[in-house]
Amino acid sequence: MENFKEAKQVAVIPISPISESSSGSSSAALNNLLLQRQNIERIRNLGSLIAASRGIQIPFFTPLPAQQSFAVQHVINICSTLEDCGDIDRLGQYLWSLPALPAILEALSKNEFLIRARAVVAFKQGNYRELYALIESRRFSNIHHAKLQALWLEAHYGEAEAARGRPLGPVDKYRVRKKHPFPSTIWDGEQKSHCFKERTRNTLRESYLKDPYPNPSRKRELAEATALTPTQVGNWFKNRRQRDRAAAAKHR
């Protein structure tokens, strides 16, 4: 009984709740995930300590492949929630606290959600070399491109500002982008112009030639086809009409 009490006392490792400043629903979900992990760790630690004190082994507490698979998804959920909350410092602490289970170690080097989490932490810590290495370590799905492209650019901007000792202007940033293009791991290879992809511009251009004054229904259709908003579509048509009028006036 004394061994049991001692083991129980040692096994309890408190995990502080997330601060109230975080968003409500994300905070509640994160606290629930952390509480589940805390309970699992308490049981595992308690069983291991009792077994060690009695000189026996308890196979039940050895992680099975299915349990490790659950643990990996559990880690992904917590990392995603912490990133969504903007609590990057705690995200870094959580990644460092993960147990050295084979499945988790493999996921940290291969799972794109966890690599992205590591990249976010590296950027926050100013460890740009690690950030670049993580981004170039594997090809990421399109859902991660925008976030990782932003990190890539901001990191290179930060390095350029540190080297020059002053903030970068628009021309400076353009030169940085030309010098450090996106790696193929976070870029589909399609050229962008004026913030729109070329195929998006082609779709808008073809529609403009048919009708330079699309009605609201047509704007919504084009927005769905190009992954833009109706407002963006309307602004593109407005700007295009202005350019055409200016060109026509110039040649009169």
Automatic annotation (TrEMBL):
Residues 233-252 are annotated as: Disordered. Transmembrane segments: none annotated. Keywords: Developmental protein, DNA-binding, Homeobox, Nucleus. One of its GO terms (cellular component) is transcription regulator complex. Residues 189-248 bind DNA. It comes from the Eukaryota. Signal peptide: none annotated. CDD domains: homeodomain. It is found in: Nucleus. It holds the Pfam family SIX1_SD. GO terms for molecular function: DNA-binding transcription factor activity, RNA polymerase II-specific; RNA polymerase II cis-regulatory region sequence-specific DNA binding. SMART domains: HOX. Residues 187-247 form the Homeobox domain. Residues 238-252 have a biased composition (Basic residues). PANTHER family: HOMEOBOX PROTEIN SIX, PROTEIN OPTIX. Belongs to the SIX/Sine oculis homeobox family. This is Homeobox domain-containing protein.
